[in-house]
Each structure stands twice: as structure tokens, then as C-alpha cells.
Amino acid sequence: MKKTLSIAALLCGLCTGLHAASMATTWTGAAGPTEGNTYDVNNTGNWSNGVPNRNGNVGPDVIFANTGTINVSGSLVDTSDGGSITVTGNSNVTVGGTRWTGNVTVGTGSSLNLGQVDFKSSLITLDGTLHLNVCGIDSGGNGARLVFGIGGILNVDQKMWGAGSFSVSGLLATTSTDIAAGEFQFVTRTLISSGGFDGGDVSLGDFLAADGSSLTKASAKMEGNAADHQGQYYVYKDGNTIKVQYVVGGAVPEPATATLSLLGLAALMMRRRRA
Questions:
Q1: With b meaning 16 or more CB within 10 Å and e meaning fewer, what string describes 146-177?
Q2: Which of 68, 86, 91 is nearest to 125 (CA)?
Q3: Nearest-angstrom CA–CA distance, 81 and 131
Q4: How many helices (H) and strands (E) does the chain have?
Q5: What separation in angstroms does the CA of 166 have from each of 15, 80, 151?
């Protein structure tokens, strides 16, 4: 049975030891909002382990899990140098003020909205949506690696400054139950939507299938019969966006699914026979 490879599993080797000295604190919202669904970032009662702060020269790990839709006013502390922001559990989080940022993880069904962000040696893992007003690269770091899950996307209202220090890679859903078994289609997906790129070109890296199997990078945009391009993808810049084109094939129902379907059909026939 094929399984979707999670981005976390894909990157676990890269992440080992990155946060060993980081202080983790999780959003609780226990102090309640100041108005509507807006909360104060500096209210200790909204955090499990106190307001996020740096531990010496190390940024904290800030976690938003199962929060629903919230707006957090005030300036979030600098999370660079080993720290992170993680948003999971179908959370929709807007943080008013933040700039220097370390690693970022946005899970499936979740979104994180930030203002001006300078990434510093950052690993940005997107199964959900990251929305920024403007972003760039801190000159004291080693750029930013964007790793996309099968539904991840980065939206930037203004330019991406220092674009040459960003790289993209990730996973692609190369099978679908919405397509008949044995049929193939081209799919084009937007990875980055921005107001432009400044300071070089985003590095276009490698992608794997969702089950972790290898794919082949095409030399140009694919045309013609999609079946002739099975297992290939093409990642490219298109104006102010970064897109990836790939081939999706119809998924054969897994044995368990097929068995349940047959049992359902048999039950229906038995009811009709009794009638």
C-alpha cells in the first residue's frame, strides 16, 4: 500500500539537532482576546511557557496548534538562529509584527500570515499556506530553503528581495482517484506567487512523488501525450510566480477500498433479493 511521505519525514535528517537549545512555548490563548479574535502577543497568559523570548543568541520555538482563526497583535520575538514558528491543526494565524525569522512550518489545512520577514538560514516547510507582505534574506545567514508538501504555497504581496538566496523543492501528488486508472493528465501548480523577484533567481531544486519515489526533471515544459511523460516534472519561473508542471495518473483503488466496495455491492444485492 502506497503512503504519502510527510514533509516532516522527508526533512527529519536535515532538522536533527537544529533546535536543541531552543525554548519552546505553545499558544494557548487562555488570557482571552482584547477585542474580537485579536490577542496580545505579550500577555503571558496566552502562552504555555511564557511569552516567547530568545535564549541567549538562540531563537525560541513558537507553536500554534488547533487555534482556529486568530489575530495576534504586537511584535513576535526574533526566532532566527535555531528557533522556529510552527502552525498546525487547521489553524489560521495572523501575527502583527515580526521580522527576523528562523524556520517556519505550516501544516496541512493551516495558514500563517506575517508582515515584513527577513529569513536567516531558514527551512520553510509548507503543507499549508504562508502569506507574507514582503520578504528578504538576512545577510548574516545562509538563505532560505522552501520545501513544499503536496498542497503548500507561498504568497508574497510585494517583492521577494534577495531571491537568489531562496531555493525550492518538495513533493508532488502524481496519482489521483479523480482520474480513471490508466489515464494521465498534465497538472500545473503554483508554488510561489509574488509581486516580483529582486536580487537574482530562485534556485529550482528537485521534487519527489508523494510516496517518496524519484521523479525526473524535464528540460522544458511538457506537451503532447501526458502518458509519454510519466514520472517527469518541470519547475519554472513564470512572470512573478514559480510553478511546477507534472504528470498525474489515475490511481488504482487499494485492495481494502476495493473489498469494501464489493461488500457494499453484495449487501445491496442481498437486500434486493429479499425484496
A1: bbbbbebbbbbeebbbbbebbbbbbbbbbbee
A2: 86
A3: 22
A4: 2, 22
A5: 18, 16, 19
Which of the residue ranges 13-22, 45-54, 189-198, 221-230 would you say has the lowest mean pLDDT?
Answer: 13-22
Longest dimension (CA), the chain: 77
Model confidence pLDDT, tens digit, residues 97-131: 678 999 999 999 999 999 999 999 999 999 999 99
Sheet holding 84-88, edge to edge: 24-26, 61-65, 84-88, 103-106, 122-126, 144-148, 166-172, 203-209
Intra-chain end-to-end CA distance of the chain, in Å: 38
Q: What is the 3-state secondary structure (H, E, C) of 72-127?
A: EEEECCCCCCCCEEEEECCCEEEEEECCEECEEEECCCCEEEEEEEEECCEEEEEC
